[in-house]
Amino acid sequence: MARPVLVAGAGIGGLTLALALARRGVSSEIFERAAVLDEVGAGVQLAPNASRALDALGLGSSLDAVAVRPEGVFVVDAPRGRRLKEIPLGLRAERRWGAPYRVVHRADLQAVLLAAVLAEPSAALTLGATVTAAEETADGAALVLDRDGGPDRREGAVVVGADGLRSVVRDAVKLPRAVRETGLVAARAIVPAAALPEAFPVSHVSVWLGPGAHMVVYPVRGGREANVVLIGAVGDAAPEARVARWAEPARALVAAADRWTDWPLFDRAPAPRLRRGRVALIGDAAHATLPSLGQGAAFAIEDAVVLARLIAAGGPDPLAAYEKARIMRAMRLPEASRRQIAIDHMGGLAARARNLALAAAPTGALLGGLDWIYGWRDAEA
């Protein structure tokens, strides 16, 4: 492919795509609206499906320098503070799914990807370039840009929209930009590991389930800090009030956070396609999802490595092949994530039944329920 692949967006999906293309000898140009790729977001869970793909790109050592491999997940009944189940990860996850489960700060993951991309001569990154449109040309595709205060245009072989929740490139795929309001908000904070109550060990991911809300806590930055995410209804009170009826360790943890940032949560209804002509979508631009399964970044990574492989293979229509490979999985995730949120936020008798079922469930059955997510591997792997 003589002309470059044009990528809108330098998030996790866009950077992974550029790197995967470079590893296969395909050139790319990334255009990113931000003038600086600075620290955004908080933690990211890299389940085995994502870790496997990144390890195959040669990033395993760089990731392990900044990430943590948790030993397992503690699921806790938040009002009582009672541990319901430990779901093992660590070596058991590696044996079952063939790759580690990692947790990492989003900025650290982005830095690892960015360094790898910048080291590739065939991958170019332009910052401060806002994509205003994508379109097909007679023999390829183009991005219309606003950069340096004026319009610009760049043509390439294909265009890939990795431009997130508010994707502009969706217009060229004839899909609506509209997202679904979920009525939920994620309050996020970073807490020093030294300030964590004993109920939140940095060796594990902790998931606390309460009526109408749940909290996820896991280590980042090599275990020096913890990422805390408290998800509840939009319009609810401050984090301290949300956990006022939870067990004391949860209240103490929330009080230990210096600053909370609220992120309203949106997703998309499953789309009937992932491409049109020579324009394709990956990540949130294609299938934005709730964070309840921890798979937003992972699915963007999956999309990227599959698309890179198919473009490099040079078939008659690589974007159609990409859509065929990914569409069913992309349609399944948002609805599965919504179902998981509903389970996590149960109250009353429903919560009691959930807790009893979870406590009694064989570990193998719980792990088996994750096989469709964590056991994924690219067709070539």
TrEMBL record:
The keyword Oxidoreductase is assigned to this record: yes
Superkingdom of origin organism: Bacteria
Gene3D superfamilies attached to this UniProt entry: FAD/NAD(P)-binding domain
Keyword rRNA-binding set for record: no
Pfam family, one: FAD_binding_3
InterPro entries in the cross-refs: FAD-bd (IPR002938), FAD-dep_Monooxygenase_BioMet (IPR050493), FAD/NAD-bd_sf (IPR036188)
Cofactor(s) it depends on: FAD
Domain FAD-binding residues, every copy: 4-333
GO MF term list: FAD binding; monooxygenase activity
Keywords: FAD, Flavoprotein, Monooxygenase, Oxidoreductase
Protein name as catalogued: Salicylate hydroxylase
